[in-house]
Specification:
Helix 7 links the parallel strand 15 and strand 16. By secondary structure, the protein is α/β, with parallel strands linked by helices. The longest helix has 13 residues. Strands 7-11-6-1-4-5-12 form a 7-stranded parallel sheet, sandwiched between helices. Strands 14-13-15-16-17 form a 5-stranded parallel sheet. It has a 3-stranded antiparallel sheet with strand order 8-9-10, with no helix packed on it. The chain is built from 9 helices and 17 strands. Helix 3 crosses helix 4 and helix 5 runs parallel beside helix 9.
Length: 308
Amino acid sequence: MSVLVLAEVDGKTLKPSTYQAITAATYWGLAIDVLVYGKDLDAALAEASTISGVRQVLHAQADHLQHPLVEDVSDLVMTIASDYNVILTAHSVFGKSLLPGIAARLDTASITDVIAIEAPSHYVRPSYAGNILAHIDNHEDVQIVSVRSTAFRAAERNGNAQIVEISVPPSRAVSRWISEQLSHSERPELNSARVVIAGGRSLGEQFDSLLNPLAEKLDAAIGATRACVDAGFAANELQVGQTGTIIAPELYIAVGISGAMQHIAGIKDSKVIVAINHDPDAPIFKYADYGLVADLFSALPELNAALQ
């Protein structure tokens, strides 16, 4: 028996979270197959076949998978599910939507947002904004698992897996893809950036003008608190935290961020945390490796000038 990893494709290539999900799959010590689904998958298939630890790449191509819908991918997974002990994917928006239906159809439980695995059936997952770590034993015959990507390193690319075509069931056509609006940026993606600089609501209308120059110099992604997004100073996709993007950069710079638990839950795996805040009693300083108590509106231009 073996582990099935459900890959996610970002246009033509695999999303970074797929590499991290494959690392999580290695904890079982079983053969690992990767299911790549969609249309025009040549680049993604070639990429997947070189990932270390992968036995074979299952190629599922169809017109109706060009923009995958949950029910169609669920039907696809069910055609091969009986061959696997473990079905695993990243805890992404799509993964979170997909797994419960698969688990229900297999009459088993799904364990989601896992940050540690003790194979074959013991998991650790955060609860209450990361304040509690729950240890869960799942004794079902089939393990259905989603993993928090930032908790696992990315798998390396020194493999040579076989690519195998599989049949795709027809679309159920109970829903349809209409359109999507993507934000394009030359900066790194928030969930995989080496450096992230994030701002809170106190930056106000100067959110972009203060953070953009620093982000450009540091080759950093920009993040924001939920309060900042709710106030309309930053776009929704920049939100960092339990209800936003979970990140684990090498360097995280928190500017004008108080340190609410919702936000801390999304950054606690950062390697180095730097906090800049005018309030010396801000909770963020309890989590920061380095802290600067200063007026943001003078400290950021000074930092920007120092980086020239």
